[in-house]
């Protein structure tokens, strides 16, 4: 690959994955009682949550792994550590210190009788940055260990490249990638209806299911960057991957569904066997969705778009700060006897309006924007032209990639 342009499609995927998280959190009060049980529950929003939650973070970590290796290749180990410390570690620490007390106060307002303490450490929605830092450390450590071999690790790298090529050539790739997590969660009730991969939003001790699930995704993205032509396989098959993901998700929501704690199931009346089939299909659907969404973006979002670029740039800030605002609106609207569609729409419109205004007027052209986006953009330009746009990296990827 000789082009020096951004990976516009992957940048868009990363941004949309973060924005989808805002939608996901806005649905929770309508069926999960987080932060409060809304008086107008909604099955439609429960299904919306289920679909988004299935693949969103796997998709994000694949893209993060891809751009992590790209950044390491461009800047070296020292530059990589400095860049990630500024763009990931620092926002994690600052956002946690500022937003966590506010979020806990809102949770206490929603349910004064509940104990919302500080132990284990509440990572809230910032857990993904914490695990991203862990994966960076692991990647650098493994890179150093393999470099101690007599061949500098090239033999192992070539073996890994061949394995990735063969894997992505196979129509069974999503099922193969699901195997490691199935070994951890195959008979775990936590993955049943609506919960999926357990969210590690409390405590600093790394959770094995999360390490396996998103570590696999990060590693795949890392090795795909070693041979970016593999992306074209996802682009060519995006329709079949999305179709398979939708089909498996539909099955999980209907005939394969097994209630938590059930002692009977549809497969020979075996709860354990029925649960295992459900989990296998659910985990495979994660990868079908991930491949399909990425492939569709490579097909339709490969060109530069000022609107998509703006959304990608703003998504990091919006996701960092959205949770207290969304929770506040959910608690405020919960007692109202309005239809859920009206309340959910108002929560989204109010939250996104305030978040975008805060980004455009208080972040984009300030030092905060420089930290998060790598550049200060002129406030007067909502969508900067190609000529005026700074050639700066987005928070999770460098702007340009080498030939």
In terms of DSSP E residues, the strand content is: under 5%
Report how far apart the termini are.
5 Å
Overall form: globular
User: Helicity, in percent?
Assistant: 55-70%
Provide the low-confidence segments as ranges. Answer: 1-5, 387-403
- Round the Cα radius of gyration to an integer and report it: 21 Å
Please outline the major beta sheet: none
- How many domains? The number is 1
Mean pLDDT: 88
Structural class: mainly alpha
Features:
single chain; 403 residues; mainly alpha; 12 helices; globular
Would you spell out the secondary-structure blueprint of this structure?
Elements: H1 8-27, H2 43-110, H3 127-147, H4 154-169, H5 173-185, H6 208-226, H7 231-236, H8 238-253, H9 271-300, H10 306-333, H11 340-362, H12 367-373
Helix pairs in contact: 1-2, 1-9, 1-10, 2-3, 2-6, 2-9, 2-10, 5-6, 5-9, 8-9, 10-11
Summarize the structure.
The protein is 66% helix and 0% strand. The protein has helices at residues 8-27, 43-110, 127-147, 154-169, 173-185, 208-226, 231-236, 238-253, 271-300, 306-333, 340-362, 367-373.
What does this protein structure show overall?
- The structure is a single chain.
- With 403 residues, this protein is mostly helical.
- It has one domain (8-373).
- It contains twelve helices and no strands.
- Helix 1 crosses helix 2, helix 2 packs across helix 6 (208-226) and helix 2 (43-110) crosses helix 10.
- It starts with 7 loop residues before the first helix and ends in a 30-residue tail after the last helix.
- Residues 1-5 and 387-403 have low confidence and may be disordered.
